[in-house]
Amino acid sequence: MTILSGPVRVGTPARQRVGRVGLYLALAAVAALFFVPFLWSLITSVKTLPDSVRFSLWPQHPTLAGYRDALTTFNFGRYALNSAIVATVITACNVVLAGLGGYAFARLRFPGRDALFLLVLASLMIPDQLRLVPVYQMVSSLGLVSTFQGYILIKLIEATNLFFMRQYFLSLPRDLEEAAKLDNAGYFKTFWRVMLPLAGPAIASVVILEFQGIWNEFFWPLLILQDQSKWTLPIGIAQFSFAYQTNWPPLMAASVIAILPVLLLFVLLQRYFVAGATTAAVKA
Amino acid sequence: MPRARAGWSQRRKEALVGYAFVLVPMSVFAAFYLFPMLYAAYISVFDWGVRGKIEYLGLANYRELLDDGLFWRAVRNTLQYTAEVVVLQTPLGLALALIVNGKIRARTFFRAAFYFPSIASSAAITAIFIFILSSDGLVNRVLGWFGLPADTSWFGDDRFALHAIVGLNAWTTSGTIMLFYLAALQSIPTDVYEAAAIDRASRWRTFWKVTMPLLKPAHFFVLAVTIIGALKVFDQAYIVSRGEGGPNYSTLTIVLELFRAAINDLRFGYAAAMGVVLFAFLFTVTLLQRRLFGNSEAS
Chains A, B: CB contacts under 8 A, how many? Predict the structure, then answer.
């Protein structure tokens, strides 16, 4: 690895040129490694079944049959709708609850606040795997297995989002709230009219990361949403692959359907994802 | 929202509003995070079925775990997976970071492209890799061009299945590692490189003597995050093995075995004991990391 960060160039011009050619060759190879799986699935999704196991870069008979079969015969339209429903509801709940809670932990004084916040941090430390049995038992006792309510209930608010909103509110200057206080605005009004509009970028991060997280999530939907009518896209993809392993075009079409919305979000709102990567690290 | 009553002091009102704002989040954390930790420990000392507790067993579930060959197989697989994936993806992530930190064209694009697999659906990516690594898939085609054996079913052969998951997850996660290293690289002041240039140090030497030592906190952070993440591997193992951990238990990971014990065998007590052991292990790893390397998140 001779590629160095930093602005300083060393070595003769000729050596530098060789270095740059090498750099771009390496870059092209690595980029190909990252693109090929996605490209191959996209190409396969518009192939016919016999065509899908042949090595042809371009489909001989391009067809949307894979998408049609996936969306209708194999119910992926339903799974996509289920994914959209749970991701939207859970994201909305997280925004509201993380906003209110984050504001309270950052700005309001109440006895036991720091102790309660320690509990928020403690819940970040508890792995999902330890929670699997007891949470499943609780959801099951409530009669909520295979219901969206059961899944939404355990995901109403995630500690990372609350933590993130609190940090953001802490970073805002206090002057504006003081002004609102002088105007005799209530706490909720101050939060709603003054603080929330200022928290736009933080809210955008929570919306994007939570939506993407739930859209992709495998572990909890697999556990809670057991009935086929409640499957989300990732569960549908797994089950389809178990049942029809070599029916590649619809499987690749379903994968494209699962990946595409996140790709669009990512292309349009990239900076929020990158900002969130550091928050995600707090979780681990 | 509690209505303000005349005569209440401002402080009391503020406290009430504070409690109201955190009530729902704290209830969720208490009910679905903190209580389950205790509940898991409680369930783990029972023979516990789908209808609840059957019989008090004391530590019998834990003793059974010690003698359970399948559980130890899962532990071995998970440790092997963790070692391989960390060794593969850490240098890969660092290399990507070094490349996209350099003065290259379209580097924002490359950063985004390398990071994207980290945020795409794990199930969809696993399905794509099942296809690419199938016996008549793309990887075998390419191997065939080089005259290598080209009919391996990578996920269907117990010699390769776990390594194939390693490859798939290294491919997926290295973009996240790239981001961590990128942040660290950008915080290195440029004057240390100027000093190295004045000393006429070669690029190779500058990398090993200047960059690497300065990345030390980032290395520890990346290792801690990736090791803990790798020990919890589940989605990919579940999907490539149809939830069974096959072929021949070669892809059975700890979390997959836990899931199977709970959902397939409905042995909740036994699965809870597994969860407690896994938690104790993860907790020890985390504490060890904190103790040894301090709080390197700040980097």
Answer: 317
